[in-house]
Amino acid sequence: MAHAQTIQLPRVLSGMRSTGKLHLGNYVGALKNWVELQNSGKYDCFFFIADWHALTTDYADTSRVKQNSIDVLLDWLAAGLDPEKSVMFIQSHVPQHAELFVLFSMITPLGWLERNPTYKEQRENIHDKDLGTFGFLGYPVLQAADILIYQANFVPVGQDQAAHVELTREIARRFNQFYPARGARTGRGADDLVFPEPQVLLTPSPKLPGTDGRKMSKSYGNQILLTDPEPVVRQKLKTMVTDPARVRRTDPGNPDVCPVGDLHKIFSSQATLAKVDAGCRTAGIGCIECKSWAADALVQVLDPMQQRRQHYEQNPKVAWDILEAGSARARQASEATMNEVRSAMQMSKAFEAPHDAAAG
Ligand code: TRP
Ligand code: SF4
Description:
Blueprint: E1 11-17, H1 24-40, E2 44-50, H2 51-58, H3 65-79, E3 86-90, H4 96-107, H5 110-114, H6 117-125, H7 134-137, H8 139-148, E4 154-157, H9 162-178, E5 199-202, H10 230-238, H11 259-267, H12 270-281, H13 287-314, H14 316-344
Helix pairs in contact: 3-13, 4-8, 4-14, 8-9, 10-13, 11-13
């Protein structure tokens, strides 16, 4: 019995597709929450870079995949994910995910995948890539493997991923029905099921507009990156759209319908917020001034991140080693689950004498 943990904290697992440098929307909508879960000390946290999932849409050109993973990792470390507290790893370095994906693909009815709202929506909206692939349809099956292979209890994600977690629960139930656990469990969960049903930990995501007022998104080109230096942040704020009713400096405005007002609500102090609210509604302040305060607030959030990032940018090998150590730890946890899975399916790797050899 090596290193038996005395207290089992509930396990949290989440992942991000490796799509390159992260923006403020990724931070507010996911990463910030992950850092808080990590720092609460109440969970055993696993966070991973879903580079195989990135291939479901970007399979035709893989030249950026690895660099994108590194960029994501640097942003994670910059934002405060800490290898002393969380396991950080990369999906493609834990081949057990693929093994479990194959097994799940055998028991997942096609109808579940064809009905998946993200699938339908993306097939309708994305036309510059051919998404008529097996991998794209199977996206949530791989995601289920990602989650269940760690027997995770909680999955912090945004609303857009809730359907995928629901599908994960259905796959877990179906697996548990077909294949009751055999042999001693490793201790997680008191019942005889291989997979617990994970719960969504819905990330409270405030509306974070990009510079054009639409939701901040890489595909809209309206993003403020976590790596944007102060002058770039200030420049982007200058071009940001405001309350369209406030045409002249003397027109009163409404911060509740202004994207800059939204930024203040997320990042500014109560005092600044009060100044913005009163000043905007009475035309006591101008948009230029108001935007400079918003930029101040953003710079205050980004500056400590960028300082931490610098350390790893100068020592990229240190960052890579963190990912490798995390991946080794993830392989160990995954392999333990796969042993349970193989044994439940009566396909363990251990030698067994053929049934009919036991002559009677
Ligand atoms: N599908 C998720 C997204 O696009 C990324 C992801 C892949 C994930 N596997 C996961 C998230 C497992 C949570 C758990 O954001
Ligand atoms: Fe928006 Fe600020 Fe201008 Fe009001 S003063 S419209 S909140 S930018």
